[in-house]
Amino acid sequence: MDGKNENLEHGNFDCDEYSFGGIKKRPHDIRIGNLNIAVIWFFDAEVEQDRRILIPSPPRIVRELNAANSIWRTSDGVRKVKVNMVYSNYNDSNQIYTETLDEKGLEKLVRIGKGYYKAADVYVFYLPGISIMGSDAIGRALYRVIDNELTYIVIMSNGARDRVESTERKGSDYVLAHELGHIMYYTNHYGWKQDPKPNDDTLKSDGTPDIGHHDDDTEEERRNLMSPSITSGVIPTITDEQVIRALQSRFFIPGNPGPRN
Ligand SMILES: [Zn+2]
Fold first, then answer.
1. What is the distance in A from the centroid of ligand 1 to the CA of 226?
2. pTM for this model (two decimals)
3. Would 132 be classed as within a structural domain?
4. How many structural domains is the chain composed of?
5. How far apart are CA 28 and CA 243, in angstroms?
6. Domain boundaries, position 39
7. Residue 22 Cα to ligand 1 middle (Å)
């Protein structure tokens, strides 16, 4: 076992759940994790496709999927997350905007998503609007129990789209990869829900340490995919420890208990 895995076992986590008969269980060594996502885009979501032509993979979404698949891998290429778009569709039955998205809106979204496809690991919604729910966030990962099912959700705004506005580069193709990172951390099989080098010297708006993000103390750390913000036009970095942690998501554990537990 190399130093990196050693760290995972003896980090400052609550170890009760994964010690067994006094012997610490080793984390599974998952090499390839398949993350199955269902993607639904709504009227006025900028996916770079004429809405009269409903091809199942709009250019923006394809780019962002490619970005996620290119970054969630170890430097030696041996371990990786494969983000599979198992379902995609356009929906215009509801006008739901990121700025005014509320709990009712989330419920609607999840029901629409599940109406199309029942068993995705994550439901990704592309919505119109520049920022999300009164914050300055352009993407958001969250989970909710809706209709008695725990569902993992990613919201992507038009503000996240990689684009140039009056010569200024904005958004990033890597926002989706970042949000999926949060989901993989949230669902860590061992309960290690934080980034391996957490941004714990910063408090979130609710007063708790920002452990879901990567530390952002140095220039290099700020380039990391899981740092609190992504710089437009810059390809982010990722560490092997982060990929290994992501691969510990229960979505990838053999005999996957699924999202509903
Ligand atoms: Zn984040």
1. 6
2. 0.89
3. yes
4. 1
5. 13
6. 31-252
7. 36
